[in-house]
Write a structure and sequence with these properties.
Layout lengths: L5 H14 L23 E12 L7 E12 L4 E4 L3 E5 L6 E10 L19 E11 L4 E11 L5 E15 L2 E12 L1 H8 L3 H7 L9 E14 L4 E12 L1 H4 L8 E12 L1
């Protein structure tokens, strides 16, 4: 029986989407992933994921949450959902994807962790951006995205680059691997990892100027089991490492991080 890879891809999207940040910042929108429908067809994905992750980027403590998955793509190229945001894919090829979209930066609440007290909240902000994906082979894919508008001044810019690989282990088992990095501008870095003079006074942390650069690198592994042609269960682990001024920030308690997920997805 020929296997449909889309349940695997939906699970990989779940892992990637939660691998970049803590549980309080679960949705990262690091890439556009068309796992709910084939080109020129309507279709979607629904599911549920349990995540155990750092409370925020740079936190030493973890927390768990359960989050829904709901994504849909129309045959005309429009899409909407919890992992991809709202946008339009101009491509009409299974091997490439490029387009524009609206996503959101979920911000950060100073009450998420005692270490953040006095830094103030970073509000939820809409982001505008674009994406480009390329299938390098049947098993290897490159993803990229650009998002602008995060942070309290709405000037944060994030560029995400990633590679993914999957291989079948048995008729109902598939193993996937991924790696990626995020590059941010100084506005983003200062909002999330910088400490102004006023924040230093309120929080007791040392003042810190955070400049543009690579925010983090990460890698993940995911095992997917097919329940049927349309349904799959996945378990995965992602590890990340902050870089540069993000790693050296007084806001950062621990520069390394890990995320564990258990997910179920169904194509409709």
């Amino acid at each position: 029986m020929r296997k449909n890879n889309r349940p695997l891809f939906a699970a990989l999207a779940l892992l990637a989407g939660f691998s970049l940040g803590g549980a309080a910042q679960a949705q990262s929108f690091d890439a556009f992933r068309n796992y709910g429908a084939k080109i020129n067809e309507d279709g979607g994905t629904i599911g549920l994921g349990a995540i155990y992750a750092n409370k925020y980027r740079g936190a030493k403590d973890h927390k768990g949450l359960v989050a829904p998955i709901l994504d849909y793509r129309w045959a005309n190229g429009f899409f909407a959902g919890t992992r991809n945001g709202l946008g339009y894919d101009f491509s009409r090829s299974e091997g490439t994807a490029y387009g524009l979209r609206l996503t959101a930066d979920t911000g950060r609440d100073q009450d998420d962790d005692a270490h953040l007290r006095g830094l103030g909240d970073i509000k939820i902000r809409p982001e505008i951006g674009g994406f480009y994906n390329l299938a390098l082979s049947h098993s290897v894919s490159f993803t990229s995205s650009l998002r602008y508008g995060s942070g309290n001044k709405q000037k944060g810019l994030v560029a995400d680059l990633g590679l993914s690989y999957h291989m079948p282990l048995a008729p109902q088992w598939v193993l996937g691997f991924g790696a990626g990095l995020s590059i941010v501008n100084s506005d983003y870095m200062q909002d999330y990892f910088g400490v102004s003079a006023e924040q230093a006074k309120n929080s007791g942390l040392a003042a810190h100027e955070a400049k543009a650069g690579v925010r983090d690198v990460r890698a993940n592994v995911l095992l997917n089991y097919y329940l049927s042609q349309k349904a799959g269960v996945s378990i995965g682990v992602s590890a990340g490492q902050l870089q540069g001024d993000a790693k050296n920030s007084p806001v950062t308690q621990k520069s390394s991080s890990y995320t564990a997920i258990l997910g179920y997805s169904y194509l409709f």
